[in-house]
Fold this protein.
Amino acid sequence: MNLRRERTALWITAAIAVAAIIFGIVQYRQVQQLKILGEVARQRAFFNLLSHVENMEGNLAKARASSTPAQRSAFLTACWSHSQGAQENISVMGMTTVDLSAMQKFVAQVGDYCMVLSQKLARGDTVTPSEWEVLATCETGVKDLVRALAETGASAFRGGGSQAGLLSLRLAAPLPSNDDAWFRGFSEIDSLVQSVPSPAYDGPFSDRALESKPLANPGPEISQDEAERIAIDFMNQGENYTNVQVDNLEGVVPAFLVTGTRNGGSEVSVAVARAGGAVLWAVDHKKLSNPQLDVDAARQAATSFLDKLGLDTLIETGWRKPETHGDRVVFTFAGTGSVTADSRPVQVVLYPEMVKVEVALDTGDIISYDAMAYLTNDVSKQLKPPLVSAKEAGATLNPELVREGEPRLTVIPLVSGRAVMAWEFRVTHQTDTYLIYINAMTGEEEMVLQMVIDESGSLTM
């Protein structure tokens, strides 16, 4: 009897051991698969970044070589468009060991400056020789950035090699990369882009605009302990963190950077304003699995999240899946106000007061939140009734355009950094869709944006 019990116990122990081994193998394979997926996403983002920066270089050269204002304006606008794509790919590179903010700022400023010159040409104004010299400096900086990116990629993927050798990797299967080479390459790029003089102009990414900017509604100074408590309450989804670190963050708005580390090593970072304790932005760096949710379910998750924050008056203005990540979706929301127009209360969409919410499509978790623009703008206090009615504004549109829906009153940011009230008309011409903004005070056309709408969302350019 005892022998039978001993045999049974041995069989049970063996079964448990086998099950544990199988479970360990499955877990190991899942971890390895997530690592491979992360590496694939990083490589895709890198090659897309390189492609966009190369196109920036080409369009800058064409803009300076062109002889007509229309062609120059078109090439400058194309450069701005590629700078937007480059910034998006920089933000999803997933480089936690090196700071990419200087490169992102450089790319943004070059694109921003191109848009300023493009709009100047579109108005019929003359671009001065000194402005062309600044553009030439930008072109040289972009050319150096292309070379540095290509050399970094060749070194990271091959452990060395030439810029030309990188071209063969663009269509090849994803390869393991060298983290040390990434670090060295992007550290050199950081020094490179910081050595390029920033263009002097008025725009959202100019040095003047990026200087310390006060919060619209600041509060009393908070301590590091208070910042840690605010951040943990904000990012806690029933999780425990093995380590929580608080650092000072100098930038547009002075803040505390609170970073929580999970058991698996992934991190959550939250920036908390020193003045008042508002959460400026938050990013969850955890790996995502296969998408399970559609866009509508993700939208509901984003809306519920904002409702809990007391931001239930915001309205959605667009959504898009990042270029290199189909496992998440970014929703953009704007603040709202109200004025009297056409003898009735009219809602005003406040585009400068913007909030972005990124939702993971595997679980519906919020993995990114950015309220910087919302917290540093308060245009609702400056609203005045429009002097131009919607009907009068619509009369200025090209009669060949087909309107979609009713016009809405908005406040839009201009490249110069100013904000103006404008009537927004969504129109189509043949197969293209546009947003046209007519100044609600003067009746002049302020801006025309083309909408690119596909399965990844909508993009304006």
Notes: The mean pLDDT is 81. The chain has three domains: 29-209, 224-336+343-376, 390-460. Residues 26 and 136 are 55 Å apart (CA to CA). Residues 224-336+343-376 form one domain.
